[in-house]
Design a protein that fits this description.
Butyryl-CoA Dehydrogenase, subunit A, domain 2, alpha+beta, Butyryl-Coa Dehydrogenase, subunit A, domain 1, 11 helices, 9 strands
């Protein structure tokens, strides 16, 4: 067998025909629609709203969920989709991840039949966008400390509080908002335009610029009784959604790492120094070998998690290991690739610095690296170190 630099461990050979077909469709979309435009989106700090419609037409929004016109794809196929999208940009993968694994999964897993029928088809098509309101200014890594309150007023609910760092916030047609009640943490569907519900975008970001990040403000927002997600009665509700999203991140990080590796490999063949390509030097070959190893190792881990999830045997602590290991690996790959590219590595002409900057957000959102290390440590020792 001939070694293929872009698939060194022959991972393609263990993917099914259906998985390869889905992967190739997403890769073509990224090559045709994202890569020619993403540096401009990143520089301008925008992500086109119509991208959600295009992703919906491909069946990628909530693709791993079943029923209600959803694709019902395997976890591995969803992971491969996240990988290819993040090879384009973390912001594009975040759009799909928040839509499918947070907003749609919350409704699909914890919502009423009426809520599912109302929202899932529209969210799947991209005609509606969803967001997930859990994080607060003083409650990030410790969601149990959230302060947003929901109280009963007759048959209605009154929500009051603030959410921070919410992807898709200002463009969302419906927000899944988690609040403290006398019965525990509950989830609510808050449609855009509801009186007292406003958003404001977070600007001056140096990371995830091709992504909408917002603050949600809930000033005594009155909601009908049927806005409540009836099946979620504790923090288990939002944490289950986060586990879905973290699974996608473990795959997505591989895509960012692969893009950086491929850029560095191509550049090393073209860049001449001292009369020959830098790819011919021992120092650069050592760097390329190191980052190729990290990309392939991360891919093997992601694939194993996907197979476990498809078999129904994946647990949250294993997802934590996947996110921790693969995002840290991607950061290392991006930093080394940036060095290989030299000064060119800091420009938007190449994807490396954009990915490196994005990964500095990915390593802390959906659970920081420190928190995931403690999750793993608790599973190893039987002692929880959070408190």
């Amino acid at each position: 067998m001939t070694i293929r630099p872009h698939d060194f461990l022959a991972i393609d050979s263990v993917l099914s025909e259906e998985e390869l077909a889905i992967r190739d469709v997403v890769r073509a979309f990224v090559n045709d629609r994202v890569l020619p435009n993403v540096s401009g989106w990143y520089e301008q700090g925008v992500l086109p709203r119509e991208l959600a419609l295009e992703l919906g037409r491909l069946g990628l929004l909530g693709m791993h969920l079943h029923g209600y016109g959803l694709a019902g794809a395997s976890a591995t196929a969803y992971g491969l989709t996240c990988l290819e999208l993040e090879a384009g940009d973390s912001g594009v993968r975040s759009l799909v991840s928040v839509q499918g694994s947070l907003a749609m999964f919350a409704i699909h897993r914890w919502g009423s039949e009426e809520q599912k029928l109302r929202w899932l088809p529209e969210l799947a098509s991209g005609e509606a966008i969803g967001c997930f309101g859990l994080t607060e200014p003083d409650a990030g890594s410790d969601p149990a400390a959230l302060r947003t309150q929901a109280r009963r007023d007759g048959e209605d609910w009154i929500l009051h509080g603030q959410k921070m760092w919410i992807t898709n916030g200002s463009v969302a047609d419906v927000a899944v908002v988690w609040a403290r009640t006398t019965d525990g943490v509950r989830g609510f569907l808050v449609p855009k335009g509801t009186r007292g519900f406003t958003t404001q975008d977070i600007h001056h970001k140096l990371s995830l610029r091709a992504s909408v990040t917002s603050e949600l403000l809930l000033d005594d927002v009155r909601l009908p009784a049927d806005a409540l997600l009836p099946q979620a009665t504790s923090l288990k509700g939002p944490l289950s959604c986060l586990n879905e999203a973290r699974f996608g991140i473990a795959w997505g990080a591989v895509g960012a790492a692969r893009a950086c590796f491929e850029s560095a490999l191509a550049y090393s063949q073209e860049r001449l120094a001292f009369g020959r390509p830098i790819a011919a030097t021992q120092l650069q070959q050592a760097k390329l070998a190191e980052i190729a190893t990290e990309v392939n190792r991360a891919m093997v881990l992601a694939l194993h998690l996907g197979r476990l999830k498809d078999a129904g045997g994946l647990v949250p602590e294993q997802v934590s290991m996947g996110k921790l290991a693969n995002v840290n690996a991607a950061l290392s790959v991006a930093r080394t690739a940036r060095q290989i590219l030299g000064a060119n590595g800091i420009t938007l002409e190449y994807p490396v610095m954009r990915h490196l900057s994005n990964l500095e957000s990915v390593v802390t959102y959906e659970g920081t690296a420190d928190v995931h290390a403690l999750v793993i440590g608790g599973a190893l020792t039987g002692h929880q170190a959070f408190r």
